[in-house]
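Posting for a labmate who doesn't have an account.
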Amino acid sequence: MKNKDVRFIEIRGNARERGRQYGEATRDLILQAIEFYQESFALASKLSWSEIQERARLWVPVIEAYLPGITEEMRGLAEGSNRTFEEILALNGRGELSYGNPFADAEAKGCSSFAITAEASGDGHVYCGQNWDWASRVAPTVIMLRIVQPPKPTIIMQAEAGQVGRQGVNSRGVALNANGLGGRFGKGIGIPGPYIRRKVLDAPDMNDALDAIFTAKQNGCTNLLVTHQEGVVIDVETTPGRHGWLYPKDGILVHTNHFIAHVPPQIAETYRPFSVDSLYRLTQIEKVLRRAKKAKTQKQMRDLIASALRDHFGFPNSVCNHEDTRRPVVDRTQTIASSIVDLTAGDYYVALGLPCETQYRKVPWSIYDE
């Protein structure tokens, strides 16, 4: 099994300094991302790259009102990477731009998320993580980022180079995992997902993390699974309208890419899961995690979780998602990163690329080291 190189990046200082450090460290990867999304956005939104940059500023007042100061970090990111501020805005709006023109008037790729409380784990620890499925050509741009930003919590997260928010955990024990739900029915300029996720990871406690979710005005539908180190787990199916929520059953919660808690009334009459493999990916993971009581050590727990995340039932459209060669190259997806987070011990393990081919590596930072 490969021991794939991971680019570990730590940024600190004020917002502009953090962004500049981030941009300098990922300049080559941001260029790769832009080259891919220029092609992808043109197909999906029918907008040229110059048109996207011109209109991207429409996001600024919405973003700043929701997450004050984040645009300063993004301006530093643009400076450090030698790109325009508008290009960084576009990279952080990629979920919206990948499925149409968000400026006229979902992030619909597969992911599989899980949480395990002490009640269900054999070693008495709290775990969470996910397989992150997205465009195959973006896989080389994935990094591990540590953001030191006192007085806010320190964040460790996986991200596409240039993005300011994705899935991860903070030093107060708040973890976030996410997966798309498909469906877009919001009006006007909504808040792109990376800013919602960043605000959740900026939160010092579960209350503020949930508040970040419930006060956001978005256009698409996304599932957000929030896990706290003390074993409190709440899964929120978010939409531009009402949200639904779920709690663990016997200490286990798994979510993929279809609505479980509720189907929004705006799409209820015609709703079908955008990714039908979501229906069996959920049960494949869950049946393995139900055996977690038998795993008595941390290594046994990680091995058990890894076996669930490497499952190939339904290949290539499996939990461990491989490229489907029947699809156009620009539209092919795969698991681009997989994570196992031990919130009790403070350990974060990541496998970049396909988890069936890649070893999980422990990141060089403790979650709780501020």
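Reply:
Got it, the structure tokens are right above this. The mean pLDDT is 92.
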